[in-house]
Amino acid sequence: MPSFGASPGATSSSRSVFHLWQWFSIGAVIVGGITLLLIIWAVLRYRRKGDNIPKQSQYHVPLETIYTIIPIIIVFALFAGTLVVENKETANPRTNVTIDVLAFQWGWKFTYPGSNALVYGQTTQDPVMEFPVNTNVHINLRSSDVIHGFYVHAFNFSRYALPGVLNQFTIRAQSTGTYFGQCTQLCGLYHSLMWFRVKVVSQSQYHAWLQTFNNPTAEAAAKAAATATKQQLSTLVPSKQTSSHGDN
Ligand SMILES: [Cu+2]
User: Fold this and answer.
1) pLDDT string in tens for the chain (248-residue length)
2) Ion ligand 1 — residues with CB under 5 Å?
3) Cα of 40 to ligand 1 centre, how many Å?
4) Is 116 among the domain residues?
5) Residue where one domain finishes, among candidates 51, 71, 90
């Protein structure tokens, strides 16, 4: 079955989204195809043959009933399918891993409550959010300034990061790998550089990774990196122009 541009999905709910998308697209192709054939058929079959006015008729009850009932059935099927998949997407099952995600102009900060793990990166470095495979991961998504969008194509998933609002969701990756993520809400000058990566690893690799944050040198290095990125940002972001023309 063709993918119609969507990702096959690396998480359990993104696979449901993918299949829903495929069925929607196939439905659209069928409806569009039938409509196109009917138009072509009507154009050819009833093209002008002379100057006589064709037979005029006002009602065709069976036809009108059919073209009312079929769309209602289609809309109901689309609604039901969407409802089932959306419920999967917004389900909040028990989780073992929680990650606090903070979006800011222009980068991401990932912290892991209950551990020292902290990942911070912006513009030219993309921060990597790491979590274990086949595990429910709870994400607390926030923004520190303007509206951002948390989007991972491989997860067929997008959520707003809103200032002053906590958005929560659960993801469960089904295969290991590194997936590309980006901000999908135009949020300022360096919006296009607001990337991140999601790295899905095995349980043991995840725990080993968490441990790397527990030795003091790593902690100091993380702090130094955070300070360095702040300095780097100040060179990247043009400071506000002050007028050099006096009062004119
Ligand atoms: Cu953004």
Assistant:
1) 888 888 898 998 999 999 999 999 999 999 999 999 999 999 999 888 888 888 888 889 999 999 999 999 999 999 999 999 999 888 888 888 999 999 999 899 999 998 888 998 877 778 999 999 999 999 999 999 999 999 999 999 999 999 999 999 999 999 999 999 999 999 999 999 999 999 999 999 999 999 888 876 666 666 666 665 555 554 454 443 334 444 43
2) 148, 183, 187, 194
3) 47
4) yes
5) 90
- Say how many Å lie between the CA of residue 19 and the centre of ligand 1: 29
> How far does residue 202's CA lie from ligand 1's centre (Å)?
29
Sign of the Cα pseudo-torsion (19, 20, 23, 28, in order): negative
Q: How many domains does the chain have?
A: 2
Span from the CA of 97 to the centroid of ligand 1 (angstroms) = 25
What are 172's two structure tokens?
A: 């469960």
The alpha carbon of 103 and the centre of ligand 1 are apart by a number of angstroms equal to 7
The domain boundary residue, chosen from 44, 71, 90: 90
Cα–ligand 1 centroid distance for 132 (angstroms): 26
Backbone dihedral region for residue 166 (phi beyond 0: left; psi -120 to 50: alpha; all else: beta): beta
Tokens 């072509």 belong to residue: 40
CA dist., res. 243 & res. 151, Å (int): 39
Cα 127 to ligand 1 centre (Å): 14
pTM: 0.77
DSSP 190: T
